[in-house]
Design goal:
By secondary structure, the chain is of the alpha/beta class. The protein folds into two domains: about 5-65 and about 75-125, Rossmann fold (3-Layer(aba) Sandwich); about 145-330, Rossmann fold, CATH 3.40.50.720. Helices cover about 45% and strands about 15% of the residues. It contains 13 helices and twelve strands. The chain has helices spanning about 5-10, 50-70, 90-105, 120-125, 145-160, 180-190, 200-210, 265-270, 280-285, 285-295, 300-305, 310-325, 330-350; strands spanning about 15-20, 25-35, 40, 45, 75-85, 110, 170-175, 195-200, 215, 230, 250, 275. Strands 1, 2, 3, 4, 5 and 6 form a six-stranded mixed sheet that branches. Strands 9-8-7-10-11-12 form a six-stranded parallel sheet, with helices on both faces. Helix 3 crosses helix 4, helix 5 (about 145-160) packs across helix 6 (about 180-190) and helix 5 runs parallel beside helix 12 (about 310-325). The protein is globular and about 60 Å long. The model has no long low-confidence stretch (mean pLDDT about 95). Bound molecules: nicotinamide-adenine-dinucleotide. Nicotinamide-adenine-dinucleotide binds next to helix 5 and helix 6.
């Protein structure tokens, strides 16, 4: 991979290779764009087969964070860090050494917890740097706010598709009844929505049946239930060549990350089938809104108010997609890029003044 060519194409500002001999550490910090604010992105520790795979992950995920923050309308940029290591070789010394790299960036990059990094690891990293979030939960966790964002996203999609604010009597299928899925079911149940739910953990499905009168279906049956909205809240990659032909829904609106197996191919397949897709990183932005609010001093009322942005941004995205005859995914990217360009313009004006 030609690094400069790749970062120019993807628009990254900076890519840092962090290396230490004792303790042994190899990490890559990718800072995609800081026009809106400091780059924020969690740290992933993974036994990548080679350096190139680690770099690709850091570049791809950091760019995704820029778009996610821009669509959420919060003053945060996009970044991501990957530590190249086997989880069994992880040591506190390694994490502290990593923390000191972050500290030296002086707040240009703020990180948190991702794959193979535990809350305890975040605490260890925080011994060397203050630029880390999730050390202390000040908000009770991100799931309630994420679920509210998804609920507002469903409202936006229903309103856009059927010109109604009335959800009563609609049918929604929820895949995954964990922290977000169960909270979402509560919002939907309160609106008089008929729920069809699934989870690989049968106990969770039975609990949602008991609490909200949901109909439980087998995990592989959830795609073919005839509903108005399908809400994926479990895994990524579940919108693919096998599942799209089974779907009998009009809207897809859920919390799971990276729902489309292939962004280009499968977003177009959904358009062809007449399914309105809420881009995952827009509708599930409650998590990043929550982290941002923890960072600036948590105020529940303010944080929940910001989640309203998800509804308004999705409406803008649906309208752009319709007017320009493009996918909602492409429209979301346009919205994010417009907000970033505006921030750059404002910055240049302020420098010139
Ligand atoms: P969770 O781990 O609490 O819940 C996931 C649930 O999905 C579990 O109950 C699990 O048993 C179930 N599941 C796993 N495989 C399944 C399958 N094949 N079929 C049906 N159910 C299955 O996670 P969560 O915090 O509720 O998050 C849900 C999704 O939303 C994840 O993809 C997560 O990355 C994404 N997300 C979460 C947040 C947040 O604030 N928690 C924010 C943004 C995105």
């Amino acid at each position: 991979m030609h690094l400069f060519e790749t970062v120019r194409e993807m628009g990254h500002e900076q890519v840092l290779y962090c290396h230490g001999k004792n303790p042994d550490i190899k990490a890559i910090i990718a800072i995609h764009d800081t026009s809106l604010g400091p780059a924020m992105g969690a740290t992933r520790l993974f036994p990548y087969p080679n350096e190139e795979a680690a770099l690709r992950d850091a570049l791809r995920l950091s760019r995704g964070m820029t778009y996610k923050a821009a669509c959420a309308n919060i003053p945060v940029g996009g970044g991501k860090a990957v530590i190249i290591a086997n989880p069994k070789d992880k040591t506190d010394d390694m994490l502290r050494a990593y923390g000191s790299f972050i500290e030296r960036l002086n707040g240009r990059f703020i990180t948190g917890q991702d794959v193979n990094i535990t809350p305890q690891d975040v605490r260890t990293i925080s011994q060397e740097t203050k630029y880390v979030v999730g050390v202390e939960e000040k908000s009770g966790g991100p799931a309630p706010i994420t679920a509210l964002g998804v609920f507002l996203g469903i409202k936006a999609a229903v309103e856009f598709r059927w010109k109604t604010q009335r959800l009563e009597g609609m049918k929604v299928a929820v895949q995954g009844l964990g922290n977000v899925g169960k909270n979402l079911c509560q919002h939907l149940h309160e609106q008089g929505i008929q729920l069809f739910v699934t989870d690989v953990d049968n106990k969770k499905a039975e609990e949602v049946k008991r609490l909200f009168g949901a109909t439980v279906v087998e995990p592989d049956q959830i795609y073919s239930v005839n509903v108005d909205v399908f809400a994926p809240c479990a895994l990524g990659g579940i919108i693919n060549d096998e599942t799209i032909p089974l779907m009998q829904t009009t809207i897809i609106a859920g919390a799971a990350n990276n729902q489309l197996w292939n962004e280009q191919i499968h977003s177009h397949m959904l358009v062809k089938k007449g399914i309105l897709y809420c881009p995952d990183y827009v509708i599930n932005a409650g998590g990043i809104i929550n982290v941002y609010n923890e960072m600036i001093g948590y105020n529940e009322e303010k944080a929940f108010k910001q989640v309203d942005n998800i509804y308004h941004t999705l409406m803008t995205i649906f309208n752009i997609a319709k007017q320009q005859n493009i996918t909602t995914n492409d429209a979301a990217q346009q919205v994010a890029e417009a907000r970033i360009s505006q921030a750059k313009l404002n910055m240049n004006k302020a420098i010139a003044a």
